[in-house]
Amino acid sequence: MKRILTVLVIITTFLTTNLQGQEIVRKFLKNQETTHKNELIYVTFSNDITLVNDNINQMFGFDALDEQTQNELRKKYTKIIDKVNQEEILKIFNKCLVKELRRYGFTVYQQEYKVNKIKGRFNTLNVSQIEIEEFTKIDSITGKYYTDSTTYQKSLTGLRMNVWLEYNFADTTSRKLLFISHEITDEFTGFTEDVEGRKYADYDLTLLNPNDAYQLSDKTSRMTARYMYNFLMNKYVKEKTKGTHKYFYSIGEDNKIKYSLYNTDYFEELPIEE
User: Fold this and answer.
1) 44: which residues sit within 8 A by CB, 6+ positions away?
2) What's the whole-model pTM score?
3) CB 141 within 8 Å of CB 190
4) How far apart are the C-alpha atoms of 216 and 161, rounded to whole Å?
5) Are residues 125 and 100 in contact, defined by beta-carbon separation less than 8 angstroms?
6) DSSP per-residue string spanning the chain
7) Is 48 left (phi over 0), alpha (psi -120 to 50) or beta?
8) pLDDT tens track of the chain, all 274 residues?
9) CA neighbor of 24 nearest in space, from 234, 264, 229
10) Are the C-beta atoms of residues 222 and 205 closer than 8 Å to each other?
11) Are 153 and 167 in contact (CB under 8 A)?
12) Does residue 265 come out as left (phi exceeding 0), alpha (psi in the -120 to 50 range) or beta?
């Protein structure tokens, strides 16, 4: 009987706490739809972009090679990043980020606006660094039927966009270093089959091209805006509950709010080096 009562207390506490959090979230959502109550963000861009070829970085002894050999290897093992326009990637990311933040209800000021003219409390967000990384990964397909354990592997080219963001860096009590990463690869689908004792791989392969880098920039920018919404929504809940609330709320790509005990659809918070 005592154990049942304990379980009931835990469930009741969970429901009460979560209902409290949901009510605060509803208020945040309403505020975002109301001018003068929504969150303000002052966004700046350092326009620092780096192109990285992970295939080259993992080559043992590459730095010891002569310049001509290095250039030949770079040409051989670089398929995408040497063909993209860095300025266009930045332009797409920056423009989309501001547009998406506004779509989520934020009032956004950009770096050409004088920060001392902003009235009331506001957040600052600096996109401090962007990195486009080309890499290779191995993927596999398996038998058409579950009884066939035959696999076929293929080397795929991938692109990964890494973004570092500085939140409220002028305020030592609330500043955060945030990180987000998103990747795409060649599309590889199909199956293996056994035909009269001979093994075959039947597959479709769609290779990445330079235009995919621009789509990656757009997608990562949209994710960044959504993660910022989740970050500030949970910051709001934490402030209203004085840090006692243990659940995490997030808005998905379908614009539906969900909650969990674990961080989902959220930035990775990195340590700040003093």
Assistant:
1) 110, 111, 124, 125, 126, 127
2) 0.87
3) yes
4) 7
5) no
6) -HHHHHHHHHHHHHHHHHHHHHHHHHHHHHHHTSTTTSPEEEEEE---EEEEEHHHHTSTTGGGS-HHHHHHHHHHH-SSGGGS-HHHHHHHHHHHHHHHHHHTT-EEEETTS-GGG--S--EEEEEEEEEEEEEEEEEEEEBSSTT---EEEEEEEEEEEEEEEEESTT-TTT-EEEEEEEEEE-EEEEEEEEETTEEEEEEEEE---HHHHHHHHHHHHHHHHHHHHHHHHHHHHHHHTTT----EEEE-TTS-EEEESS--S-PEEEPPP-
7) beta
8) 444 333 333 333 334 457 788 889 889 999 998 878 899 999 999 988 999 998 888 778 888 888 888 778 888 888 999 999 999 999 999 999 999 999 999 999 998 777 777 888 899 999 999 999 999 999 999 987 777 778 999 999 999 999 999 999 888 888 999 999 999 999 999 999 887 778 889 999 999 999 999 999 999 999 999 999 999 999 999 999 888 878 899 998 888 888 888 887 899 999 988 6
9) 234
10) no
11) no
12) left
Tokens 């009884």, residue?
147
Place of tokens 């920018």: 221
Q: What one-letter code names the amino acid at 128?
A: S
Structure tokens at 44: 């700046």
Tokens 């009562």 label which residue?
5
